[in-house]
Amino acid sequence: MLEIERLEAGYGDVAVLHGIDLTVEAGAVTALLGSNGAGKTTLMSTLAGLIAPSAGRLRFAGQPIERLPASRRVEMGLVLVPEGRMLFPDSSVEENLLLGAYTHAARPMARARLSEIYALFPRLAERRRQRAGSLSGGEQQMAALGRGLMAGPKILLLDEPSLGLAPKMAQLVFETIAAIRAQGIGILLAEQDAHAALKLADSALVLENGRPVLAGPAAQLRANTQVRESYLGL
Ligand SMILES: Nc1ncnc2c1ncn2[C@@H]1O[C@H](COP(=O)(O)OP(=O)(O)O)[C@@H](O)[C@H]1O
Ligand SMILES: [Mg+2]
Predict the structure, then answer these.
(1) Is the pTM of this model over 0.90?
(2) Given 31, 195, 227, 233, which residue has the most CB atoms within 10 angstroms?
């Protein structure tokens, strides 16, 4: 569904990503692992169209997308849930969710999707009229996921959804990601928690200093000595 080939990107003259190759399939979770500063967010931003790649190819559903603006990618079904959630704290939960359905394609579906999201996240339904800023961290992450789902994604780019959450809430987020995958949506999951990510994921890519160092089926990476020592602390 999403194909990344020899991708290079960075900020101005600062090159960050070097030669990234990766595919994200529909109905599968691909984990993007790496310590702080490895380049996970830079890759997510490049895929979403917020950063222009300096080299390489990006294809979505068979079409080249390198030159498409971010809004067009969302319309096609490539949707980013950014690091730090980025909700509007003074708007209600429901207003934040509805913002996810801003594209031409998503707008007519908004009410039906809202019901689906409230079924998936009953806590958001209870808090629909509350300010988003008054929610707990875990609830805010649910709202950010819900906003992403409102766009009708084929692929969701999730940038550190468990960051800063209590273990129980993080667990709930991972269970939700599994439920989203079961709907046939493909997920690229950037995570510092390699344990949790490799348990859930079908495949994974490990980045170090913007370079791919390991890639393969999640089970294979879980058994890899280098991964066990550097990322799983075993
Ligand atoms: N806006 C920016 N301008 C310049 N350099 C940046 C910017 N954002 C991130 N970087 C640098 O890019 C590298 C990768 O960062 P990032 O993609 O945020 O990593 P991660 O998400 O894996 O923690 C780091 O060296 C970071 O300092
Ligand atoms: Mg990051």
Answers:
(1) yes
(2) 31
